[in-house]
Amino acid sequence: LFVDADDWIEPNAVEVMTQLAEKHNARVVVCGNKIGDECGSTCCDEVDERCEIWERDYVIKEFLRHTIFRGQLWNKLIQRELFDGKAFNHKIGYGEDADILWKILLGVDKIVWSNIPLYNYRISVSSISGQRFSAKKMHALNVWQKICADVEICYPQYIDIAKSRYGVE
Predict the structure, then answer these.
(1) Which pairs count as long-range contacts for 61-65, CB under 8 Å and 24+ apart, including other chains?
(2) What CA–CA distance (Å, rounded) separates 17 from 19?
(3) What are the DSSP E strand ranges found in 36-146?
(4) What per-residue confidence (pLDDT) applies to 63?
């Protein structure tokens, strides 16, 4: 579980996400997020009603769409062993999360996706993410170029989705 320095998780986030992982035998759990400064626990009674099991093809498709399932690591509980043999590319100034998450997703059969808002995200104008344009953001183009190459080989049915996210035809 990754938590950015200026963000925080709800007090029961690890418990809820671990319960979902164990119950559904999933190696990755994705939770919802809130933007703001208000903290409060999320009730565990309704957990199952607020989650979906996504099989690998759907996971890949949603990652490529990059709308409700994005490439950041900060709202995901990921089994540590999925990182074995993988490393962050420290030459990437922006998009390094998507780069490693893509590699991880290629090795999972399913994930649990939940809209339970367990992660609290702060937008800072001084961070790279908070800026409209930054030279470092251009690094994401290289990440998506590599993802498109992988998709062309492994998931050609989704190449149009991948290319539209990358910004090419």
Answers:
(1) 61/158, 61/161, 63/101, 63/102, 63/105, 64/147, 64/151, 64/158, 64/161, 64/162, 64/165, 65/161, 65/165
(2) 5
(3) 51-55, 76-78, 110-121
(4) 96
Q: What is the pLDDT of residue 38?
A: 56
User: E strands along 100-150, which residues?
Assistant: 110-121
CB of 94 closer than 8 Å to CB of 139: yes
| pLDDT given for residue 128 in this prediction | 47
Query: Which residue in this structure is represented by tokens 């090419």?
Result: 168
* Spans of the chain below 50 pLDDT: 43-45, 127-129, 131
State the Cα–Cα distance between residues 163 and 152, nearest whole angstrom: 10
Instruction: Copy the structure tokens of residue 25.
Output: 């035998």
**Residue 161 near residue 65 (C-beta atoms within 8 A):** yes
| DSSP 8-state secondary structure symbol assigned to residue 77 | E
| Under 8 Å between Cβ of 37 and 122 | yes
Per-residue model confidence (pLDDT) at position 51? 93
